[in-house]
Design a protein that fits this description.
heterodimer, A: 486 residues, alpha/beta, Rossmann fold, 2 domains, 32% helix, globular, B: 293 residues, mainly alpha, ABC transporter involved in vitamin B12 uptake, BtuC, 0% strand
């Protein structure tokens, strides 16, 4: 049968500077097929997706598409202050004479949403929507052009498990109508559950191809070119009181924190589970001291005063920020400089009139080695590193020395399995060394792997607490959805 | 009673005369900034418009040709700003500063070349009172027209989207660099018309420094007006009235420098959020980048 939606033959892409991102890749996707493209960071997935979408020209090789391609990028490309209908129909606006026909536009968007099972309010401003709704808008915008092929880059990275299921139901329905779907993802759970065929890229070449039903471990092995390393073992040790939050209120609106109590002991990892927007953000900001809050926070028996992030750092708090590029790192600065941030005031890095470059270099070299940060040099700009290496840098900075409390927000968001495994091991090792670790993550599987205790956040309050050994996906999922257990 | 009425009428007339050049420049600024390009070159565009208008009107004896030349000169500078900001991803502030310095210097030099003496041109054929009134009407209509364009037409939507998130515009199959360049060129033309007003309607000559910071006052009006055409028009009217008031207060003992500072204080207040939620376009001044992998 000759019903290809996309045929890529011998794709080579060499970037300026001689970096060969793709080296002779063949991929074909049939109409109505859900195809997954997996690979580590830097394997060439996003480059290949951009070429498939027609947004990037290959250095050599042929691209044949049955129609046009839609592309949903990992981070939404939406105009926040415009309405949903304006975003969806931008560039294809219905008009009457010279004027926009707003009524027709709203009706078009509502009808489009109904057709594809992607409910949206055409008049809502995009900035008021949550991550899932923004993604629906983005998908609708692409579907409005009736593409033969829809490409999604890491579509589940900002979604809760239930939302991911809904998304894949929509993609299945779309495939059933004959549209080919290409999903670029590192989430092997998604891949195993929904993809009909799987292409694994490694270092710019096709490393393996799988059909539905392949074992996630086999796919992961093909991605990293070997066995997935086991996580660090957790050594049992006595825990000691360390961090305590009482009656915490912070944030505003639906995501506000409403009277939350929490204890994290030294030598344990407490995981905060919950659907995005249930108070994780205000919780992290309050503990880091970067946003106002009410209630009390104690670290090692001393109260942390509001609004003094530097005092918290001095007291032994280190943070892995949720958004590495916006909050965590200064992309135009070097690896060396980024690794000094936060400790520049104190010995051994600072303390006098000038920074101690030698000490900065020693510390950076040690972090880069322990966290396997692949950087051309310590003086390389952080913007040149891949997302996974940036994340390893961020975590490495937080664990450069042994902090008292580690606040880890989405510690492995959007990075590949090998890098994620490495970071999870480092978190467990920190716990073994007596650090109190608070891990806030939307990835429940991650918390299952690392946490000693899971606390569920629902609408800004604790909705359940589960000890390791009694982790139960169904009960935790119910608590996340606000269904009270008995 | 008649005196008071006459006084009010002349104050209103003077306000409109003082408003028009600021308004033209402010509208040019709004167009430019809504597309995402910060335009601090309004001052230079006003000067270029005034200079070109005087030179062409002087050479041809036809003030209407001067008007066209002024618009073209402003548009040309606008195009250069847009081109530098998009194709070369230049920093908008640096590019705008460069254009201001270039335009003011080039005009001063051009006066020497064209009129054989420094400082000011000869008096040339001007637009007269009728022309002045017509241009004031054009300025006010342009504010309404730009409002309709930005908020009621597809092209206005695309332009606004461009100032908020050019990546979304490119995803929609449009070229944000092209849209920005067009917006800068049209905005420059409008600002050039403000210069024409100064040189051929309010006066009939060009002299160095005649723009007297009006471009920056217009920039303040853009901000104070919340980056909207009608807001900028209202702000321009306020600033025009303040300027007209200076003539009446010259003997009152209030230093005129204090009055001249008011537009900037108003812009500061707007930036500090004292006038409600005026927000700059999100991608205003952000050079657009292509990034993959």
């Amino acid at each position: 049968m000759d019903a290809f939606a996309l045929e890529l033959r011998g794709i080579v892409k060499t970037y300026a500077g001689g970096v060969r991102a793709l080296d002779g890749v063949d991929v074909t996707i049939a109409r109505g097929e859900i195809h997954a493209l997996c690979g580590e960071n830097g394997a060439g997935k996003t480059t290949l997706a951009a070429i498939a979408a027609g947004r990037l020209r290959p250095t050599s090789g042929s691209v044949t598409r049955a129609g046009n391609a839609g592309f949903v990028p990992q981070h939404p490309h939406l105009v926040d202050r415009l309405r949903v209908w304006e975003n969806v129909l931008l560039g294809r606006e219905p008009r009457r004479g010279l004027r926009l026909d707003e009524r027709a536009a709203r009706e078009d968007v509502a009808a489009l949403g109904a057709t594809y099972g992607l409910p949206v309010d055409p008049r809502a401003r995009v900035e008021t929507l949550d991550a899932g709704a923004k993604q629906r808008v983005e998908i609708l915008r692409e579907l409005a052009r009736e593409p033969a092929l829809l490409i999604l880059d890491e579509p589940t990275s900002a979604l809760a498990p239930a939302e991911s299921d809904v998304l894949f139901d929509v993609l299945r329905a779309l495939a059933a109508r004959g549209t080919a779907v290409l999903v670029v993802t590192h989430d092997l759970g998604d891949v195993a559950a929904y993809a009909e065929r799987i292409t694994v890229l490694r270092a710019g070449r096709v490393a393996a191809r799988f059909e539905r039903g392949a074992q996630p471990a086999a796919i992961a092995g093909a991605m990293i070119g070997g066995e997935l390393p086991a996580l660090a073992a957790r050594t049992s040790r006595a825990t000691a009181p360390c961090f305590e939050a009482r009656g915490l209120e912070a944030g505003s609106g639906a995501a506000a924190l409403r009277g939350f109590d929490l204890e994290v002991r030294g030598g344990e990892i407490v995981g905060i589970a919950g659907v995005e927007g249930n108070g994780q953000r205000p919780l992290a900001d309050a503990i880091a001291g970067v946003a106002p809050y009410r209630g009390t926070l104690h670290l090692d028996g001393r109260e942390l005063a509001p609004g003094r992030p530097a005092a918290r750092i001095a007291a032994g708090l280190r943070t892995i920020a949720a958004d590495r590029q916006r909050e965590g790192l200064i992309l135009d600065w070097s690896v060396l400089e980024n690794l000094a941030l936060g400790d520049q005031r104190r010995a051994p890095l600072g303390g006098g009139l000038t920074l101690h470059r030698g000490a900065m270099r020693d510390r950076s070299a040690s972090v880069v080695e322990r966290f396997d940060v692949r950087a051309p040099s310590l003086d390389a700009r952080v913007s040149m590193l891949s997302g996974g290496n940036q994340q390893k840098l961020l975590a490495g900075r937080a664990l450069a020395e042994t902090p008292r409390l580690l606040l880890a927000c989405e510690p492995t968001r959007g990075i590949d399995v090998a890098a994620a495994a490495l970071l999870r091991s480092r978190l467990i090792e920190a716990r073994n060394a007596g650090v109190a670790v608070l891990a806030i993550s939307l990835e429940l599987d991650e918390l299952f792997e690392i946490a000693d205790r899971i606390v569920v956040l629902f609408r800004g309050a604790g909705a359940g607490e589960f000890e390791r050994g009694a982790f139960d996906r169904a009960r935790i999922g119910a608590a996340m959805a606000g269904v009270r257990g008995r | 009673m008649n005196d008071a009425f006459a006084g009010a009428a002349s104050f209103a007339a003077l306000t409109l005369v003082k408003t028009a050049p600021i308004l033209f420049a402010a509208l040019g600024g709004v167009l430019c900034e809504r597309s995402g390009v910060v335009n601090i070159a309004l001052e230079g565009q006003l000067a270029a418009g005034a200079f070109a208008a005087v030179v062409v009107a002087g050479a041809t004896g036809n003030p209407l040709l001067g008007l066209v030349a002024g618009v073209v000169a402003g548009a040309l500078l606008g195009f250069v700003l847009g081109f530098a900001a998009t194709r070369f991803a230049a920093d908008h502030i640096v590019a705008g500063m460069g254009l201001n310095i270039f335009a003011l210097g080039a005009c001063a030099f051009g006066i020497v070349v064209a009129f054989r003496r420094p400082g000011a041109s000869d008096e040339v054929a001007a637009l007269g009172n009728a022309g002045e009134a017509a241009l004031i009407a054009v300025a006010l209509c342009a504010a309404l027209g730009m409002h309709a364009f930005l908020y009621l037409t597809p092209w206005g939507l695309r332009l606004r989207a461009c100032g908020e998130n050019p990546a979304a515009v490119r995803d929609a199959g449009l070229d944000p660099a092209r849209l920005r360049t067009i917006a800068c060129t049209l905005g420059g033309g409008l600002t050039g018309l403000g210069g024409v007003f100064l040189a051929l309607a309010e006066l009939d000559l060009y002299s160095d420094g005649m723009t007297a910071g009006r471009g920056f006052i217009a920039l303040a009006a853009v901000i104070f007006g919340g980056w909207t055409p009608l807001g900028a028009a209202a702000a321009s009217l306020v600033f025009g009235a303040l300027s007209a008031l200076q003539f009446g207060l010259q003997r009152s003992g209030i230093p005129s420098e204090a009055m001249q500072a008011l537009p900037y204080l108003a812009a500061l207040a707007a930036l500090a959020g004292l006038t409600g939620r005026a927000r700059a376009p999100q991608a205003d001044g952000v050079p657009e980048e292509r990034r993959f992998d």
